[in-house]
Design a protein that fits this description.
Elements: H1 2-8, H2 25-35, E1 55-57, E2 59-63, E3 72-76, E4 98-105, E5 122-129, H3 133-141, H4 154-168, E6 179-183, E7 186-190, E8 197-201, E9 213-217, E10 235-236, E11 243-248, E12 256-261, E13 267-273, E14 285-286, E15 290-295, E16 298-300, H5 302-306, E17 312-314, E18 320-326, E19 333-337, E20 341-350, E21 357-364, E22 378-384, E23 393-397, E24 403-407, E25 419-430, E26 440-451, E27 456-462, E28 467-469, E29 473-476, E30 507-515, E31 523-530, E32 538-543, E33 554-558
Antiparallel strand pairs: 1-5, 2-32, 3-4, 3-33, 4-5, 6-7, 7-8, 8-9, 10-11, 11-12, 12-13, 14-15, 15-18, 16-17, 18-19, 20-21, 21-22, 22-23, 24-25, 25-26, 26-27, 28-30, 29-30, 30-31, 31-32
Length: 563
Amino acid sequence: ASLRSKAMAEPSTREAPQQFEPPQPQETRALLDSLRPYHTPDCELTFVPVTDEIEGQLELMSGQVPKDFPYGAYLRNGPNAPYYADRNDDHYFDADGMVHAAVFAPPAEDDADAPDGAPGHQLTYFNRYIRTASHVREREAGKKLFEGVLCFNGYRLIWNIIKNKFRTGSTFKDTANTSLLYFNDKLLALMEASAPTHLQLLNPENDTKGEKMQTIDQKFDFDAQLEHPFCAHPKICPVTGELMTFGYSAESKPYMYYSVFAPSGKKLYTQPVDLERSVMAHDMAITRNYSILLDLPLVFDPQNLVEGRFLYGFDSEHPARIGVVPRMGGDIEWFRVESCNVFHTVNAFEDPETGEIVLHGGRYVPERDPYFAYNPAYMYEWRMTPGTQGAGVKERHLDTLPNEFPRINEAYMGQPYKWAYSCETTAWGPMETAWRNPWEVTTFGAVLKYNMESGEVADRWGLGPSEGIDEVQFVPRVRDTSAEEGDADATSAADEDGRSGGDEDDGYLVAFGSNWEDKANVYSFVAVLDAKRVGEGPVAMLKSPQVIPRGLHGTWVPYSAFK
């Protein structure tokens, strides 16, 4: 109740977030020790791939899908190895991409089949592999052709690249397994080492073969405009509709490029980013006028191969920098920050009171290999003053709870905001059965709602001891309930900031999760939470017709995305 009162109360003045001392190495080890006893080996069952592509009904377990929940689909991407893969050998991240879909469709003309508790929606599930060129090639051969390249042993990595090149002509598999982007009426599957894969969802009326989803273009290059790999976390400005992205490589300078695309898909700008070394940059951020790029010490080092380690490693001697570039390009102002790495940003904005550029993200200092072992990330804030030649930067921890996969109401992307939603890490331990790599597994056992103005956790939904949740997706509430459809077209007119009216947290959170209390009957579910009252738990719980393996990132699409 006290948490909820904080969430609902509007502060009369904006207070600075509480200052926390950064966790020290011994504190991180203590955290790991405290989490490990709660690790349940059975949770590894949720990492085991599914090989069947199915469709079926989502069974209502509890609650009711609200009438103002929009029509559309929650789509989640993630690695899912085919039956011929070797999970004792490959890394989880090397597996083929698979889309899992929870579809909230308009009711049929004859609504007799609508489940109790969901009279305004047809609730279905399906999963499909992403048919990249590599996936199709192996599928037709009926055997493994590509060896994994996420190898802790550098010598093994070199040998696998040679075998891949000899067998297939490519050095690695294009998995498209990391995230999904809905842009310019196109659904794109992303992995940061390649161009996107263009997918198309099929309306039941046109899906004569029962495909549910088609791969339209295995290497979508924006009509030959894309000149570099496409990152896993591009950003769409809710005001202009522009898409900002970047790509990195280890082959030669420049090691990074930055690009902007118009809402129509036309490229507006590309520029090289001058980096001293190739870095593994997974995410970026935007504000109303700037884009933010990360040059952090997860660097490519050929010496790692010589010494038998993975080619990207954390080098604390490499300067950690945050780059601020005008959206349409120009000189990049680099801000030197404390050594760290960031896999996922939360949001960024220009503070109207101070003129600072504020960046929030999950910051961690890798004491152990970030690709194979667990390192806890904490909510963090950087404040940078443009025009100071990189000297004007302040930074601080906002919280001490380990968490990951932060999300926001994307109508507030790049703008001042208050609420963020993240998954709390509540268990950690060795990966013993499902995969050989990575060595360890974590469980997200709670959903956190952060007040980013104060830096506090305003609300929390904790799952059971044998349950876990994946990344949540914010879905705006339908404000005009008299409209025929509940998709984006049924919301009220957007204001000048690209928002559709209402409170920032006026919507729902949707996510996949699993329950492994009964090892013989592991099941997965779709949780729908009211974003205003996260701590009250799901307003609806829907049981999936099959186990949904742990995955990575997803998106929401309106029902109009089904063609």
